[in-house]
Specification:
The structure holds 2 protein chains of 2 kinds. Chain A is mainly alpha-helical. Chain A is 84% helix and 0% strand. Chain B has a single domain (20-241), classed as Up-down Bundle (Four Helix Bundle (Hemerythrin (Met), subunit A)), CATH 1.20.120. Classes of the chains: A mainly alpha, B mainly alpha.
Chain lengths: 218, 242
């Protein structure tokens, strides 16, 4: 399983694109919003938590369709299915690899983008904490969506239709934690719920994703 | 005599042959009674005026929009556990009906909100969760139509329905957490005193019965169509093999 994660990490770094693309996309979203909304710092400060979270959602979505699709095309997935490692563990490994490749860098750059969007100073810590707690759920839910649509020719668009509604609870609690934190209010409730979603998704969705992979490989 | 007899497509077609016309007649009768009674023979509400009459479409369609998803969930479980094809096809047949009911609830709600709240749309938990439910219906239908192999499609959409149900419920509570409600709380319940006056209550009940019957009739018709379509595809495949 660890070998699988390392392989995915190596592929993401070496093949180019996969690694930096999500980050570049996140940056572009954060740059486009002020251009669309206008440069008033107060307005930007108000919407910054939501924009940063929606941007994280979208850039996590961006790299999902290559999660299983490449392995599906060149037959790696068939080999993984016949290996002693159960497909549920393969799904979990893919989730973790996806999180390391897209989730972790997002957390690292988010404060810089927060600066661009004039996030209130009290919000930075909670932005980091909420992204750290919430992005694993994004990877887990996304892996499930990718596993469902892996057999399809043009599954990317369909997958975003399936995955984005499931991102709603994560987005709500994540953005709420940052909004409350930036306003100096208590943040423990949304953070606890966010952590609950992430842990629940990581515990249960590998089984759903593994089942979907098995059905697609049948 | 058990429920599982109807898992046989032939038996299902035979039984529903007689059931569909009966259900349709009853649905039309109940809807006509409920709606005409409600629209023309009840007074206007004191504050809302005539716009209160939207209740006879809004409430039943909203109820059935959720119940349709629950029915799909049960049918998906039956398919995953007992592999009855009719069950998977019934879930597929219910999805567009449920989606349209959700849309009706949203649109009538907008028409009702305009005169009473002064706006077509507010980001209220109930409205938001219905919009999200609508998106779930769209995704479910899109996945069904995207996959060619019928059994794989049935399996994958069933898994999506199970996981989607969990997230739909989560979104509902997330939305409650996220915004203060403008929508009034539930007006009907089995165990509490109703907060709808009797004048509106009885036509509403008839109308709800009409929507339930209509839903059943539509789902049965669509399931029959799906069964016949599947049979046609099987015949077609056999012909090409020969």
């Amino acid at each position: 399983m660890i070998a699988l994660i390392l392989r995915d990490l190596r592929l993401a770094v070496r093949a180019g694109g996969g690694f930096g693309l999500g980050l570049a996309f996140y940056l572009i979203v954060a740059v486009l919003v002020p251009l669309g909304v206008g440069p008033e710092v107060q307005v930007l400060g108000l919407i910054a938590p939501g924009v940063l979270w929606v941007g994280a959602l979208l850039s996590a979505l961006l790299s999902l369709d290559r999660m299983f699709a490449l392995d599906w095309e060149d037959g790696t997935l068939d080999l993984l299915a016949t290996s002693p490692l159960p497909l549920e563990s393969v799904a979990l490994a893919k989730m973790l690899a996806h999180w390391l490749v897209t989730g972790l860098p997002l957390i690292a750059v988010a404060p810089v983008l927060g600066l661009l969007l004039n996030l209130a100073p009290e919000g930075y810590l909670w932005l980091l904490v909420s992204l750290a707690l919430g992005t694993p759920a994004l990877s887990a839910i996304g892996a499930f969506g990718a596993a469902l649509t892996v057999g399809l020719k043009r599954g990317g668009l369909l997958m975003s239709l399936l995955v984005l509604p499931m991102y709603v609870p994560t987005l709500v609690f994540g953005a709420l934690a940052v909004i409350r934190g930036a306003a100096g209010q208590a943040v423990s409730t949304p953070l606890a719920l966010l952590a609950a979603i992430s842990l629940g998704a990581l515990a249960l969705l590998p089984f759903a994703a593994g089942l979907a992979l098995r059905l697609n490989l049948r | 005599m058990s429920l599982w007899e109807y898992a046989n497509p032939r038996k299902f077609i035979e039984t529903t042959e007689k059931l569909v016309p009966a259900l349709s007649v009853l649905a039309v009768a109940a809807l006509a009674t409920g709606l005409i009674w409600g629209f023309f023979f009840t007074g206007d509400e004191r504050r809302m005026g005539a716009s209160v009459k939207i209740i006879y479409i809004h409430v039943p369609s909203a109820m059935m929009a959720i119940n349709a998803w629950v029915m799909m969930l049960v049918a998906s479980l039956i398919w995953l556990i007992r592999r009855h094809h009719v069950s998977a096809l019934a879930a597929r047949a219910a999805a567009p009906v449920g989606a349209v009911l959700t849309l009706i609830a949203l649109v009538t709600g907008a028409f009702w909100g305009q005169p009473t709240w002064g706006t077509w749309w507010v980001w209220d938990p109930r409205l938001t969760s219905f919009l999200i439910l609508f998106l779930f219906y769209l995704g479910y239908m899109a996945l069904w139509s995207a996959i060619e192999a019928p059994d794989t499609a049935a399996d994958l959409t069933s898994v999506l329905c199970l996981v989607g149900s969990v997230f739909a419920v989560l979104s509902r509570y997330a939305a409650v957490f996220w915004s203060q409600g403008q929508h009034q709380p539930a007006s009907l319940s089995l165990d509490k005193k109703e907060n709808v006056a009797d004048v509106f209550y009885f036509p509403l009940l008839v109308s709800i019965a009409g929507f339930i019957l209509l839903f059943l009739a539509l789902v049965l018709v669509r399931t029959r169509t799906e069964i016949r379509l599947r049979r046609l595809q099987a015949l077609d495949a056999r012909e090409r093999m020969a």
